[in-house]
Structures are given as C-alpha cells and as structure tokens.
Amino acid sequence: MKPAVQIEVLRELMTQLDEGVNADAGGVMSCPASTYTCPDLARREWETFFRGHPQIVGMTADLPEPGSFITCNDLGIPILVTRDKAGAVRAFLNSCRHRGPMVEQARRGQKSRFSCPFHAWTYDSSGALIGVPQEEQFGAIDKACLGLIELPAAERFGFLLVHPDPKGIIDTDSLFQGVADDLEHWNWGRYVLAHEQTLDMKLNWKLATDTFGETYHFKRLHKDTLANNFHGDVLSYQSYQRNHRMVLCLKGIDDLRGRPEADWTIEQGGFPVYFLFPNVVVNVGNKRIAVVRVYPDPENAGRSISQISYYFDREVLAENPGMAMLFSEGFTAVVAAEDYATAETTQRALAAGLQDQLLFGRNEPPLHHYHNTFRRALGMEPLPVT
After folding, report:
1. Contact 9, 266 (CB under 8 A)
2. How far from each other are the two terminal CA atoms of the chain, in whole angstroms?
3. DSSP-assigned letter for residue 149
4. How confident is the model at residue 136 (pLDDT cuts 50, 70, 90)?
5. Spatial distance between the Cα atoms of 213 and 367, rounded to a whole number of angstroms
6. Rounded to whole angstroms, how far apart are CA atoms 24 and 18?
7. What's the pTM?
8. Which of 99, 105, 143, 253 has its CA at a distance of 20 to 30 angstroms from the CA of residue 368?
C-alpha cells in the first residue's frame, strides 16, 4: 500500500470514528441458508472455484532457494511444487509415471531429486525422469516423455500460484486485479515462513470466509480480545471485480491525531485485510502477515479446512524469534476459539432446515461482495440489496 493511500485510509477511519459511521453497503441483503448447506452447490463450487481455477498454494518464503519444495493435498489431487535449479517455480502432479505412487510425502523440504518409494523411479526438480532401475526391463523407454505431469505455475507479489488443470491458464493480472499496486508495495517476497497450522472445522468454507468480513462483531464477540486493540464498527472498504481490501482500525490511530501526516504509517492505525478470490484472506500486521487459505470438503458442505501460514520480515524475526508463536497463538485464539467456533453453531442451526435466510447489514459490505462474486462466477443471479 503506497504511502499516499495509507494516509487516505487513515483519514477515512478517523472521519468514521468522529462521525460515528461505518462502511455502508447501501442496503440490506438476504442470503439463502442453502448457500451454506446445499450439497449440489458445494460440488459446483469445488469444480469451479478450486479444481477449475488457479490457486495460491503458498508464498515465496515456502520455496526460499533452488531445490526447495512443498506439497499440497488440499485440491483433491496431490501436487508437488519446486524451485528448480534456475530458480523458477514448477508444479507437478505428485505421482510417479510408472505405477503412480506419490514421489514425495513430506510437507516441505530441500531436495534436488524425488524418488518413488515403490520402484525408485527418480525425477529432478524440473520434473524430468532421470533414473529407472533395471531400465532394460522396459525396452526402449523415452525418458523425455515420462517426466512428472506438469501443472501451470507462477510467482508474483510473493505468492505461489498453481492451476490444478494441466491445460489451465494463470493470468496474474486478472487474479490480482485491483490490489496489484498494494501488493507490490508490501514486498512480501522477502518475508520468511515462521509457522503454519491447520484448522479442520465443522462449518461451510464460506462461513469461515464470512468471519473475516466485518467489524460489527468486534465489540461483541471479541470484547475481551480484539476489542482491546481495535475500534469496532468502523471499516475502510474497497471492492474490485473479485478481490477486495478492507482496513480495520487499530486504537493506535488515536495517537496519530495532531501529528504530521507525513509521519503516518498504516501499521500505526490500521490493519489491512485482503480477500483474494476465491479463498484466500491475507491479514497484514506490522512486518508480518497471516495468510488463510480456506478449502471446502466437496462431499460435506458443513466442513472446511483452513490452512494458516505466518510470515515475517526476516530481520524482525531474527531479532525476536518468539514473536512468531505469540502472533500465531493470538490469531488462533481469536479465529478458532471465537470466530470459527461461533460459525460452527451457525452451521448446526442452518443444517436443521428451519431458517431459510440470513441477513447481511449495511455495515457488512464485504459479505455482500463475497457472496455476489461467488454467485456471478457460478452463473447465478446476484442477491438484491434493499
């Protein structure tokens, strides 16, 4: 986020505080309860948003140098992502071309070669088949045709992207539409991974995403946690075609009043949160970020898995290594124990089938944006605002 934009956002938050107003969606929206419970809709979302769309699978920090790798099993297919000898990001179906076992089962590591545990067919970090034991038993084998099946991959703004379809296209200009200037400024490519965790929850994936979409609940649900450091009921909000940026208001903003604007930084008074379609929420702290990737269970609309990764400016983490665990523990105490735990009760209530609608207020514009973005992508009529 450029300095001029930071000042503009901080001014907006101060004005909201002074006038007692919040971001305004322009009306109230009714959302069908089936949005969170319908099995057919869940399967359509899975195929369209996850199997048929590029996915953010990590950050540059996850592949810090040539020979680094990560694996991903969140999309229904096993994926191996590497940084090859030339430093390029590559992605493959994590499956041996001989009999199909995964060639790597570790979550992450450093390797120049990947060997199938079954018969030791071996591949390098560019996916090429480089070793076949007793090769003569297979006749005139053409190794060039039997490398790992490659998937489209890209790296931009510190994000690693993979398309689960070998014929898929990754258009980063479209994927980061509206937020590219902000993301380029943050320079997250120089961050390092500090910690990661998985939350397997009994709630629809969109319910999980909803919890990151407004500040109306801060003074209520988070009265003993976030409300200690954040002003609730104020929000700087900007939506784009499929992405959006919201900035929460830290109580530190009060200390900026009377100081020269040239000295203001967003970290002193704001907490930016980016939604990257379809399932990524980036929470931006002072020289640290928490990246939440939310995945549905295509067979159970009432279950989702959140993969949360914490990244830090390398110098900050080197000076205070314990900060990573404190940040993750605090984040989890709010997200898992308060937001997600409450949303699980919503899921149970909606599953009873007696309530057919939920309401999104004027003060919850990100929820309006989330849901109509999803609906449009599925060819469904947008929900009206009244």
Report:
1. yes
2. 33
3. P
4. confident
5. 6
6. 16
7. 0.95
8. 253
